[in-house]
DNA sequence: ATCATTAAACTGCACGGTGTAGTTTACTTC
DNA sequence: GAAGTAAACTACACCGTGCAGTTTAATGAT
């Protein structure tokens, strides 16, 4: 049980945190304050407050721009308590990153349903990525991680590999080709192209513009990416109108 | 006359600084030290040293990680002299950014030659972008700028618009369609797709991995992008082997 | 050609002010 | 008494300034 504190709101997440497909905005969302009393030790409660505050601060100001004083203030906790839970600023930052990235990983699943038309299947495949792009929590995390790892190539590579869907896409494309539904000679290249078409328009521009695209926007991008992908890799070339 | 100080080397540039197509690695490269005596006042010389040092430091450590003390030390100049030339750290940073970005802009030109086969023309078009990607100076600049602007959306948008080839690509695609050489319904989307195919594989991964790709690597990416682009947008669908 | 003069730029160092990571201490609450 | 709190404190790094003294280069006089 953890929260994603975005700039404007604190959204509650329980299990399938990142899986937007299961998120229901009408579902009850206990406020952070409302949750506080139940079944948590004081220590755990404080720790949770610290984590929430730290996520918010790091995402808003970045690592260097965030001070431990402000975190403790925002968490309504004394600075010493922060240090009782996390031995240093760096440890706090890395534990949070670790945790959030793990959340992303555990929630991801790539669909493959060979009974559906190939176009529809590709759309769903594209939406596995697209679901992340319209999730404010994910975009905030991505901005935080990527702004801090751009000067740390090793860490950047690690994060990249853990947050990308590359290998899963490859597997699906390979299988679809084996089943004669696509004609992909190099699944690695094709997967990069497909993801690249989506990310270059739906991810990076928004990452730097600090905005979150809406469903319609991403749907258009995915549809156009599928069109292009199919023009190149479908069994019999279809020109989509 | 200015230099691009990369992490490992200081490369001399005279006019067509960014235009890798004209760069000749065998051409004489005066060392910075060798150049020092000739025709520059002491003041100009010192200023140049400061700029070189600042570029290197900012690119290696980022804005926050760079101290004016280290810049002065690296430039072999007193700290006071740095402040005589640049009134603050921020001014120094922005003047450098401004200058480098202007260099990029002035060197860019998008080819359009309708006597060449369409595939060849697209390859050249792709290489207009590719030339930047294999240029260490450009990649270092991009890393510096993007790492600092990710928390400043307005500046990021400005930089993006000034460093992207989007509109030029659009114009070329529109013209090629008018001349019946391509069948592009939406030039804006098509330009984004084409550039996206290239950048998502040749730019962003390398930006974060802190590496510079070589010609062969980029050539493969561009060729595969052209293949895909043509599968969707060429007059008569060609399946490239 | 050689020497003095002069202005501008550079040096080196110390210093004020600020921000921040992390620690200590004395006090409170459960 | 275990954990939290508030506030002061240490140690340090950094930006930017002031200043006394030195270098540089150009000018002009001898």
Summarize, please.
The structure is a homodimer of 241-residue chains. Chain A is mainly α. Chain A is built from twelve helices and two strands; from the N terminus they run ββαααααααααααα.
Distance between the termini of chain A: 46 Å
Q: The CATH topology of the largest domain in chain A is what? A: Tetracycline Repressor, domain 2
- For the record, the CATH architecture of the largest domain in chain A stands as Orthogonal Bundle
User: How many strands, which pairing sense, and closed or not: the largest β-sheet of chain A?
Assistant: 2 strands, antiparallel
Number of discrete domains of chain A: 2
Strand order of the largest sheet of chain A: 1-2
Fraction in beta strands of chain A = under 5%
* Largest binding interface between chains: A-B, 39 and 39 residues
Structural class of chain A: mainly alpha
Q: What CATH first level of the largest domain in chain A would be assigned?
A: Mainly Alpha
Helical fraction of chain A: 55-70%
Which residues of chain A form runs of ≥5 with pLDDT under 50?
Answer: 5-38
Oligomer: homodimer
Shape of chain A: elongated
In total, how many beta strands of chain A? 2
Number of helices of chain A: 12
Task: Average the pLDDT over all residues of chain A and give the rounded result.
Answer: 81
Instruction: Identify the CATH homologous superfamily of the largest domain in chain A.
Output: Tetracycline Repressor, domain 2
Radius of gyration of chain A (CA) equals 20 Å
């Amino acid at each position: 049980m953890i929260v994603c504190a975005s700039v404007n709101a604190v959204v509650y997440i329980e299990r399938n945190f990142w899986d937007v497909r299961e998120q229901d905005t009408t579902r009850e969302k206990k406020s952070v304050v409302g949750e506080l009393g139940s079944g948590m030790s004081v220590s755990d409660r404080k720790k949770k407050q610290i984590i929430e505050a730290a996520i918010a601060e790091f995402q808003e100001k970045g690592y260097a721009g965030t001070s431990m004083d402000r975190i403790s203030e925002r968490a309504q906790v004394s600075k010493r308590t922060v240090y009782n839970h996390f031995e240093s600023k760096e440890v706090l930052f890395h534990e949070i990153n670790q945790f959030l990235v793990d959340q992303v990983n555990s929630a991801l699943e790539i669909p493959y349903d060979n009974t559906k038309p190939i176009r529809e299947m590709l759309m769903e495949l594209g939406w596995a990525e697209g679901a992340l792009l319209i999730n404010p929590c994910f975009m905030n995390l991505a901005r935080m991680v990527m702004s801090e790892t751009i000067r740390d190539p090793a860490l950047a590579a690690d994060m990249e590999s853990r947050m990308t869907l590359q290998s899963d896409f490859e597997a699906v494309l390979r299988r679809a080709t084996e089943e004669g539904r696509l004609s992909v000679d190099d699944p690695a290249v094709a997967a990069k192209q497909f993801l690249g078409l989506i990310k270059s328009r739906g991810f990076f521009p928004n990452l730097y513009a600090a905005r979150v695209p809406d469903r319609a926007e991403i749907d258009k991008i995915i549809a156009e990416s599928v069109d292009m992908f199919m023009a190149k890799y479908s069994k019999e070339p279809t020109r989509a109108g």
